[in-house]
Amino acid sequence: MKSFQLKAKILSQTKIKDNYWYCELSAPEVAGHALPGQFINIRVSDNFDPLLRRPISIHGVSGAKIKIFYEVVGKATEILAQKKKGEHLDVIGPLGNGFEYSRIAKKSSNRRTILVAGGMGVAPLVFLAEKTKFNKPLVLIGAREKEQILCSQEFKTLGCKVIIATDDGSLGFKGKVTELLKEILSESQQISKPENIYACGPQPMLKAVARISCENNIASQLSLERHMACGFGACLGCVVATKSGYKRVCKDGPVFSGKELTW
Amino acid sequence: MVKQAKPNLSVNIGSLALQNPVMVASGTFGYAEEFKGLMDLKKLGAIVTKTITVKPRPGNLPPRTCETPSGMLNSIGLENPGIGRFIKEKLPFLNKLGIPVIVSIAAEDNPEEFSTLVRQLDKINTVSAIELNISCPNLHKDRLISQDAKETFALVSAVRKLTKKCLITKLSPNVTSISEIALAAQDAGSDAVALINTLTGMSIDVHKRTPKIGSWIGGLSGPAIRPIAVKMVWEVYNKIKIPIIGMGGIMDTESALEFFIAGATAISAGTVNFINPRASLEIISGLEEYMADNGILKLSDIIGRLKACED
């Protein structure tokens, strides 16, 4: 896997709603190598406060362009959102190991792959859905309320079936997206049982997905988020506990098999 | 026009000759392979490895890092594969680079472990120097060797007998008098001192009312600590005769120059490697430019040449 450090020109920067932003960057080398589940590490400021880069997952690739979809959650993302079209961002990427999807049989019947997204967890899963659209994945999107349900149209455009869960019941299934997952799996016949579950979202959701997948004997791949200092495996700061000891989320992940993690 | 001679950046640290005085600090550069593809490693003055212990160490409980104003806290806890696997799995890549490799070592429980490590490293020709990390703040110890002049003297004396390789003693800023410790290292035969290691610090998540890192306390690094580091280099420079490798929040050429003028013979880029992997190379060319612009032919002409303020 090869990574690059470059000045990526901002081609577009659009506020989707509230604190959610969509941005396109010109980064030919990154775009040429990027896989779903990988991320870029962005330096939002030339001075040293904020000091560290911010890892942002790759939302999609088109030609020499990489797309990111992010939420303003603090000082660094606030600075990022203020950057205008035509400005440049110092970017390192693509970084990390993405989702493994090459084994999804092209001939396998539809909906045998489930993508589970919590909140901003949709960001890398849209890219994955694009790469696995031949399988027409079933996408479960969860959030606290309907205003936080993101990207459902993007998934539908790719031919995915989308089911929504909200904690307050303001849209779709009332409850956690993992409760929805459990229900769907208990209904599915042995013959049409899903073969792969991919998930990205808050840690409690990921833990529940890992447990439910395991109970149903389905392979799961989870994309983790951690505070990172370097993003390329040098500092050993972002580790997570696994069956074979601590692993770096930035380099050995961010995608891990649910069976491997001991959290 | 007379063509100006290229500025000479080479320096010596004891028996160790460096093509330039810019090294990368232990713990911020892994075992160099992590930076392959992001920069030309062969241009560095030297590489200091992540600290190695006798046995493998899993490291401390995550989360291990957090950002602070113009800095960061870390408590990695010397995660490393142990000396055996280091020699087998990590050293071959470093050997191929053709630049000096400085191996950083530490003891977990007993200072004797330093001797065990030095004995093994002494036999390896490609190890150019050994850095004694007696100042890691993340081992959950009540006191560090580098916080006691007598213990520092005893440790350095003991390993000095075991090797002729260049020995560098890495000092902690978490002391009353760093020059007292530096003198002890010098008197015990250390070829150089490296300073500063991180300052201990703490950061609290007020919403959860928890420390932001799993070990509660960590080591503070980055530009936030630079003035402290520059002051300590200057203070030590005025007390000792052996070379100083200066570090602490160096981000660019200007901050590197502060350390040379304060008295450092070489510098290490540390935390900046995480943010800009090419920073050390930018500093090397920046130093050449500074010297050319100011008519300085040898770097030694600016080392320790701090003048009083002008009116």
Question: What would you say this structure looks like, in words?
Answer:
In chain A, a hairpin with a 2-residue loop joins strand 14 and strand 15. Chain A is globular and about 55 Å long. The model of chain A has no long low-confidence stretch (mean pLDDT 94). In chain A, helix 5 packs parallel to helix 6. Chain A starts with a strand and ends in a 6-residue tail after the last strand. Chain A folds into 2 domains: 92 residues, Elongation Factor Tu (Ef-tu), domain 3; 110 residues, Nucleotide-binding domain of ferredoxin-NADP reductase (FNR) module (Rossmann fold, 3-Layer(aba) Sandwich), CATH 3.40.50. Helix content of chain A is 21%, strand content 34%. Chain A has 263 residues and is an alpha/beta fold. Chain B has a single domain, classed as TIM Barrel. In chain B, 28% of the residues lie in helices and 20% in strands. In chain B, the strands form 4 sheets. Chain B has an 8-stranded parallel β-barrel, surrounded by 5 helices. In chain B, strands 5-6-14-11 form a 4-stranded antiparallel beta sheet, with no helix packed on it. In chain B, strands 1-2 form a two-stranded antiparallel sheet. In chain B, helix 3 packs parallel to helix 4, helix 4 crosses helix 5 and helix 5 packs parallel to helix 6. Chain B starts with 10 loop residues before the first strand and ends in an 18-residue tail after the last helix. Classes of the chains: A alpha/beta (263), B alpha/beta (311). At the A-B interface, strand 14 of A face strand 5, strand 6 and helix 7 of B.
